[in-house]
Design brief:
With 379 residues, this protein is mostly helical. It has 3 domains: 53 residues; 143 residues, no CATH class; 150 residues. Helix content is 70%, strand content 0%. It is built from 15 helices and no strands. The longest helix has 30 residues. The two termini are 50 Å apart. It is a multi-pass membrane protein. This is FUSC family protein. One of its GO terms (cellular component) is plasma membrane. InterPro entries: Memb_transporter_dom (IPR049453).
């Protein structure tokens, strides 16, 4: 049945669904049977969401829908507007400075600011520092090349040696990438301008000026507290997890489609929090230390959502549902944890005593909640 589905996906076949499966007799077999039949339904009718969401097979929506979705995200995103203001301020300041101070290649200042202020590539602080250090290292290599290599056809073998360093060193970090690409750019500039080592000082001055502007006007002037940046978002995610547990097993349990939407929204929020944590890890103290201390809690919350989903599937396929007292206890523990995360910036002592009936479908979930609460306790 699985190979039949794989063949249908590969060939685009959307014929009659329904793999012939034996009648399930156990809880596990019923879960597998349900999953296979759902996959067959998806393959048979991969309808596209009219709101522009990718279809059920994961194929992208129409170009117009994707453009509209991107424009809506940019227009309604506070982070996008904040980034635009930061970049505009830095570029405006750079243009003011280069109009006052004579700089031979002023466009390098604006380019440096744009490269450092990448919103999706980590901390501005670390990128500015690595950009400056990488530029200095790259200029040392460029100085040797420009001083010793004769102009002309000798540039070709030198570029053959230097160019592969860019993709080779890029995975090692932004500083390595900058150090590798700087001599390549200067060698190509020398081919056009024939200025040799006279390119070195302007490149150094412009790059350091751009890094300084990005660091001051794009970073230090936009302080964000730990709570507004990470803490409140993490606390909201824990609160949402408590609501997800109640929606899955509480007296007012939602229907499966609503539960699936809630789960997907929760995973999206956790993905954004994970990204923000990874940026915060590269920040100078105390933000970096706090992010390192709280990072395991993000992973623990993801595991709680996974355990809740697994328990819900087990109940759907024949396991005994949990009692209302169990659900209330777990959701209460999660809300207490969320309140603690929202109020403090350092690890604190919490209760981790979670007990329940042996063999309950929520036993794995209780273990994950207890683990999450123990993370919040100082070790």
């Amino acid at each position: 049945a699985v190979r039949h589905l794989a063949s249908a996906v590969e060939t685009g076949h959307t014929g009659p669904p329904g793999p012939r499966l034996p009648t399930p007799t156990t809880e596990t077999a019923r879960a597998v049977d349900h999953a296979l039949r759902h996959a067959a339904d998806v393959v048979a009718s991969p309808d596209v969401d009219p709101r522009g969401v990718d279809d059920r097979l994961g194929r992208p929506a129409a170009l117009g829908s994707r453009v509209a979705r991107a424009l809506r995200g940019v227009t309604l995103s506070a982070a996008s507007w904040r980034y635009g203001l930061r970049l505009a301020l830095c570029i405006g300041l750079a243009q003011t400075l280069v109009s006052i101070i004579p700089v031979p290649r002023s466009y390098w200042v604006a380019l440096t600011i744009t490269f450092v202020l990448k919103p999706d590539f980590g901390s501005v602080f670390s990128r500015a520092l690595l950009r400056a250090l990488g530029t200095v290292a790259g200029l040392v290599i460029a100085a040797a090349v420009l001083a010793e290599v004769p102009r002309g056809w000798w540039d070709v073998p030198v570029l053959l040696l230097l160019a592969p360093l860019v993709p080779a060193l890029t995975p090692r970090g932004y500083g390595y990438q900058t150090a590798a690409i700087t001599p390549v750019i200067l060698l190509l500039s020398d081919v056009l301008n024939r200025q040799g080592t006279a390119l070195l000082l302007p490149r150094l001055v412009d790059s350091l000026m751009g890094c300084a502007i990005a660091l001051i006007a794009g970073y230090l002037l936009w302080p964000e507290s730990w709570h507004t940046r990470v803490g409140d978002r993490l606390a909201d995610a824990v609160d949402d997890t408590a609501r997800y547990v109640e929606a899955a097993f509480g007296p007012d349990a939602v229907d499966p489609p609503a539960g699936a939407r809630m789960r997907r929204r929760l995973y999206r929020n956790l993905s954004g929090i994970r990204t923000e944590f990874q940026r915060a890890l590269t920040e100078p103290p105390p933000t970096g230390r706090r992010a390192a201390a709280w990072w395991p809690l993000v992973v623990a919350v993801e595991r709680i959502v996974d355990a809740t989903t697994a328990a819900r599937v087990r109940v759907k396929h024949g396991a005994a549902p949990p009692s209302a007292a169990e659900v209330t206890q777990i959701s209460l523990q999660l809300r207490e944890l969320a309140e603690g995360v929202r109020k403090v910036e350092t690890l604190y002592e919490v209760r981790t005593d979670l007990t329940g009936p042996a063999g309950s479908v929520l036993e794995p979930l209780r273990q994950e909640v207890a683990a999450a609460r123990s993370i919040a306790s100082p070790h």
